[in-house]
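Collaboration report, partner site 2.

Our partner group contributed sequences for two proteins of shared interest, and the home lab folded both. The records are reproduced in the order in which they were received, starting with the first partner submission.
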Amino acid sequence: FMNILFECGTSSISLAILVCPVVYTGYNESLLNLNDIFNKPECKGTLDESVSPPVVRFTFPLNMTSACGSKFVVSRAWMRRIFADFSNIQTVNVSGVVQSHDPTTGVVTYNAELKYFYSCAYPLEYLINNTQVEDPNYVTPLFMPALGLELRTRVYVQVKATNLTAQYHVLMDRCYASISPYPTNSTFYNLFVPCSTDQMTIMYENGDSHHARFSFPVFRFLEQQNQTVSTYHLHCITRLCESSTCGTYKVSDEATTLSSVPIVTKNDNCKYACWLFDH
């Protein structure tokens, strides 16, 4: 297993195979193939002698249409810790094999067969911060006035995935505002959670395409009622789900009042609320 190193990147997977054992066995870099693909130059290995010891490198993108024959398998498991907000989490495993091609002609060979396996697991859930816009067409970025946004101003939020195959859709599991930029140990307010949506939050699209959209009116935290402006941060826990299974995760369409204290208030001494968002 020490003869291969691989890097599971966010946009590609890179493999590095020690070339000395390959040559010793009777092969060279041109006789190593990735998942039995021989006719695609982008799937061939290249010899890198700038490092010691020298290696054969393979690099391919994380895209089902151009991943050089890699297998994509989605699994599901119960999670804890940073993914504790999910009842379960989906993981996509990308795997394959680099193996030798024996050029020997005839009935028998004295060359050993080489196989180098790789496997990368990617959780399909993320805790992300969003960019907000101020129009329902999701074109104009939200402008933050010096004195803040006026209460009840509707903010439009979009979570969008790019370079994504049709197999996956974007699904928001939970969006909430917190006073601290780090949501742990901070006062927070749920805009929506699975099977429960704040009555002021409007969900437009979720789990149906490569983007999810909703809007909500600007509010104040009671904890900050004596401050000139109310400052808080928006967070969304988002997953990529297979298009055929997104419906099993969707939140309910029914309007439900949450059990938290009412915080949509207006301070007579301050008519504006200021929002700061993470990037």
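Second partner submission, folded after the first:
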Amino acid sequence: MDTSETYIKHIREGLMWMKIEAEYVAYHHYLRERYGWFYKLWGWLS
């Protein structure tokens, strides 16, 4: 297998994971904004 093809494949996978991570972070931030009281309650209980 050509090394440049493998390299491009790794970059694509990396970008995909970065996109997933960014979406997860944004979603988590949204949940925290929306349900901040729940996070506080959870933190207090645990």
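Feedback sent to the partner group on the second submission included the following. DSSP finds two helices and no strands in the chain. The helical segments are 3-34, 36-45.
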